[in-house]
Amino acid sequence: MAADPTPPIGEDDLHALVDGVLDPARLPAVQRYLAERPDEAARVQDFTAQRHALRAALDFKAREPIPARLRVANLREARGRAARQRWRMAGAAAVLVVMGSGLGWTLRGSMEPRPDATAALQRATAEAPAPPLQAMARDTDLGLWLFRRLGEPFPPPDLTGFGFALETAFVLPGRDGHAAQLRYVDGAGTALSLWRRPSPDPVPRQLRCVDEPGGLLTYSWSNGETLYAVTAALERDRLRPIAQALERAMEAPASVAGPLAGRARRPCDAALG
Amino acid sequence: MGMEAVSERDRRMEALVPALRRFAWSLTRNADVADDLVQDCLEHALGAWHRRHADGDLRAWLFAILYNLHVSGRRRDARRSRLLGEATAHDTGAQASSQDAAVHCAQVLAQLDTLPEEQRAVLLLVGVEGLGYGEAAQVLDLPVGTVMSRLSRGRERLRRMSDAKPAGVPALRRVV
After folding, report:
1. Smallest CA–CA distance from A69 into chain B, residue
2. Given this structure, which CATH class describes domain B1-87?
3. With CB atoms 3.0 to 4.6 Å apart as the test, which of A163, A264, B88, B120 could cross-link to B115 if both were Cys?
């Protein structure tokens, strides 16, 4: 009898057939083999049914939405946080320096500005479960960066129409949700900060203006879900149109795509301050 | 490593999370314990990334980490004692769309549970997760021949189990 050029059929061939990884060149030989041996064919059929049953029984697990704690970005952040913990004291101080020029609005507690903003921020930083995260516009797509960390879209408004360029974003993890700050700078080096954080009070509040110590001016408003505040060492006439444009833009996120612009002065603007 | 490479790497890892969760759940049969295991696995992977072979198979690498963590299991057991009693029946049952399907799933998984862990792991990796035999061997740190023989023994054993029942493998008929 002439030697069969095909190696004999093995158990591995049968499993490869079941798992769909059989070398196509071997398929005819395996099929011939099974056609002549009904018992083996029944085994292969049973193995195949078994494989399908197992997959079906476990399929639901792979189709579940993955929990936030298994997001790689979140895990990476947690790792970074552990490392940053060592720098916590230094970090709090650094944040004061970085945010200092744009700060007039407290992160926690009521929207009423505190007379001593630095103390308020110190308290907020100390109370926060983790130190602030920071990203620079020149390195990072801040829209995406904020989306990932806030869990909702917060496209940074384009304030180039007012002469301000986006420089840095901060996210401060909070127990009730994350606060974010966007820091803008104009050609003269004047800093402007846009803050947002979850509102503790569901009642929307119109734009209002408060003078802060150190020549800072803050406009703040709330839509009942999110509190916003914009702070800068600017004249009212210059900051007000920016605040109004931001308020409009935050209520209609689609309009944030392009540069914001001021609009004609409304009669009530004077009352606003 | 640049931001781009990091986010690409994160994306590739995250794409495997559903399969890792399924494998972990299959091994532990407890949703919380399984997700703890996946979290440990991902944290370990993030910390050990630089030790990974640049051209290695990411999937096999992650499954290997997860399986090793499962086997070493010290942390898992600590958690398990905490979670003891939050059994798994509702895990399976609640997900199935019908009573029949739920019973079928429960039976298939109950049979799988009777296999020795080493055979169960091979059946899950090859049959459910779709790893190649070489990949499964890499995950379990075994020669391919050993993987094949465990696969063969596991499948044969499940088959005999089903044969012992009146209506054969499709368990739907059995439960009527």
Report:
1. B39
2. mainly alpha
3. B120
